[in-house]
Design brief:
Elements (H helix, E strand, L loop, with lengths): L1 E5 L10 H9 L6 E4 L1 H8 L7 E4 L3 H10 L3 E6 L4 E6 L2 E7 L1 E5 L6 E4 L3 H6 L9 E2 L4 E3 L4 H7 L8 H7 L2 H13 L6 H9 L9 H12 L4 H10 L4 H4 L5 H14 L5 H9 L3 H10 L4 H11 L10 H11 L1 H15 L5 H8 L1 H4 L9 H5 L7 H16 L6 H19 L2
Parallel strand pairs: 3-6
Antiparallel strand pairs: 1-10, 2-3, 2-9, 4-5, 5-6, 7-8, 9-10
Helix pairs in contact: 7-9, 7-10, 9-13, 10-12, 12-13, 12-17, 13-15, 14-15, 15-17, 16-17, 21-22
Length: 418
């Protein structure tokens, strides 16, 4: 069905690059509409993000019209009917209406069509099956408007069939529920995801990573992750134990500190107890080098940060740096749960805001002047002196620094009989 409603408060429909693309593709027997997430988000009055466009025009006609208008076109998914048009530096994926003739997971053989209802029915969720034309008229052929109003995420048609078409839809179901749903996940869809969980093994690590990291920072991630754990869906992804209690505690800690949701920090709380867990996850999810280092650092003896006094915490902060210190401290906090020490944990977590570590004031020249030759020995002496300096709680008085330098050289000379 088409709804009588008109999408208001969507200025991109009437002016700007998206409106230009719609104008380009409408007329002369063809129609174009904005589809999917942009329509959903506009109805929810949240940032639109990418704007995807569907059209009755075949790809060659899209490219012909773009060329005539001086618009760059890129055949990003030409076999599936997708051409990317770039207007004023903004990309728009333009996809010809289609029918899946045969389905082999993501390798469906497609045929182009002109039926908006059939095209809507082959999409994943009802809230993503809406479209809006250039005049702002909403078209709902799958019940998406009612589900948006009810904050309900449902598969279009038969959930088992939708999932078999692409097993990534299992993860998307929970991510969409965490972002746009309310209460328990749709029961029919949830059970279909559990039945199809073996299919998760067929997905590439890169696709799983992308969905999971988005899911972990969604507004209602805690409930969605708990539902996945209850349905046995996390073990095939992580290959290890999931700590849903620590995950919930990490979310609470982030919010209490006013921190932005961090996917890697939350992943650590959910699935990292030791550094071996971090390395396993890095491989299974194909994490970036930076993500891997952050996860590995959090997993490294995080339990040693529990119950620290401030002097010890300052030394940890100095050694780890602000980001690594806070992340590892928060993992320890999340693992501790509700241990009655909220005020103490918060005090430790906010230390970087109250205190900035000074730079180690002694230099190589201080030890060369005391007879230490350049080379490995000098590096060793500097490391020993830094340890001694930390033990003094960051002394900066010249007399104290001279004593540290003298005592370090004496110790090194004695131990190495130079």
């Amino acid at each position: 069905m088409s709804d009588a409603r008109v999408l208001d408060d969507a200025p991109w429909l009437t002016s700007g690059p998206a409106a230009r693309v719609l104008e380009l593709l409408n007329g002369h027997g063809e129609e174009a509409r904005v589809v999917g997430g942009a329509v959903r988000n506009a109805l929810l009055k949240i940032p639109t993000g990418d704007i995807d466009i569907a059209t009755t025009a075949v790809p060659s006609e899209v490219i012909r019209r773009a060329k005539a208008a001086g618009i760059k076109s890129v055949p990003t998914g030409i076999d599936h009917g997708t051409v990317t048009l770039v207007v004023n530096g903004q990309p728009f994926e333009v996809t010809t209406l289609r029918v899946d003739a045969e389905t082999f997971g993501r390798k469906a053989r497609v045929a182009f069509g002109r039926d908006w209802i059939v095209d809507a029915q082959r999409r994943d969720f009802t809230i993503n099956g809406l479209s809006v034309d250039a005049a702002g008229r909403l078209h709902d052929h799958v019940g998406g408007l009612d589900d948006i109003a009810a904050k309900r995420v449902r598969f279009i048609g038969d959930p088992d069939q939708r999932i078999a078409e692409d097993y990534l839809r299992i993860l998307r179901f929970f991510r969409m529920h965490a972002a746009f749903g309310d209460g328990e996940p749709d029961r029919t869809g949830y059970l279909a995801c559990i039945r199809a969980r073996r299919g998760l093994a067929s997905l590439s690590a890169e696709r799983v990573r992308m969905e999971m990291l988005k899911l972990l920072v969604a507004e209602a991630a805690e409930g969605a992750i708990a539902a996945m754990a209850d349905g046995g869906l996390l073990l095939p992804i992580f290959g290890g134990v999931a700590y849903t209690g620590a995950f919930a505690a990490m979310i609470a800690a982030e919010r209490s500190l006013g921190l932005q949701a961090n996917a890697i920090r939350r992943l650590a709380a959910l699935a990292v107890a030791v550094t071996e867990d971090a390395r396993r996850l890095a491989g299974r999810l194909r994490l970036s080098n930076a993500e891997t280092r952050a996860l590995d650092s959090m997993g490294h003896r995080w339990w040693r940060l529990a119950g620290m006094d401030e002097a010890t915490a300052r030394r940890r902060l100095y050694r780890l740096g602000e980001d690594r210190y806070r992340d590892r401290l928060m993992l320890a906090w999340a693992r501790a749960g509700d241990d009655g020490r909220f005020a103490q944990w918060r005090e430790l977590a906010t230390l970087p805001e109250r205190w900035r570590a000074p730079k180690f004031p002694l230099k190589a020249a201080d030890f060369i002047a005391r007879g230490i030759a350049e080379g490995p020995a000098l590096g060793h002496v500097l490391a020993l002196a830094e340890d001694a300096w930390l033990a003094t709680n960051f002394a900066l008085e010249q007399q104290a620094l001279e004593a540290i330098a003298d005592q370090t050289v004496a110790r090194f000379t004695r131990d190495h009989r130079l």
